[in-house]
Amino acid sequence: MPWMTRASLRRACSSPTCRGDDLHEMTDAPSWAFPRSALGSDKPICSTSACETEAMVGHPGGVGLSEGCLICQGLDGDRELGRVFAWEDDVWRVTISLKAPVVGFAYLEPKRHIPHITDLDGVEATTLGPILARITRTLVEETGAELIYVNVFGERVPHLHFNLAPHRTGDPLAGGAGMIIGEPPPQPEHTLRKIANQLARRLRD
Predict the structure, then answer these.
(1) Is residue 31 part of a domain?
(2) Residue 2 falls inside a structural domain
(3) What is each CA distance from 112 to 42, 72, 125, 200, in whole angstroms?
C-alpha cells in the first residue's frame, strides 16, 4: 500500500481541547499501520500539545487515559485500527495487525496514556526492557522471523507504541529509510489472524 502523504492527513481536529478548527498535520507512516478509516473517523488522532495533555482522565485502576486517543479506548480502538488483542498485564498490552504485509506485525503500548517515548517514566520505564525482549522473542519463535524491526514514530498517534515487525529474507520489509519495498498488499486476513491467535496463546501462558 502507498504511504500517506502529509497533505492527505490534514484535517480539522474534533477534540474539545483543540483551539477552534485548527488543522493538524500528521506524519508520514505506512498506511496499513493506521488505516484511513480510523484517521478519517470522528475520533481525533492529533499531534498538538493540547490533545496530548489536556484531555487526561482517570479510571478506577488509576491509569491515565486520554479521551481523544484511540489506543486508550482498548478493544474499541483495536477494532477501528484493524488490530486484535493478544496479551496484557497491569502496565502493557500487545495487539496484532490484521492489515499488515507480514504476519505477526505487533504493537506494544503502555496502558497509561504516555504521549511519546521521551515522556516514558515510572513503572513503564523500568519494565520496558524485559517486556520488549519477551514479546520479540515470542514473535521470532511463532513467525520464523530472522529479525524483529522495532520502530517508534509517534507524531500521528500521540500515545507511545512500539511497532514490532517480524522480518525474513525476501519479505517486503526493508531496514533503514526505505522501510517498505514497493507497494505490497496485506497478507490474507485468515493467515494474519492465525498467527495472532498463536501469539496470543503463547503470551498468555
Answers:
(1) yes
(2) no
(3) 22, 8, 12, 21
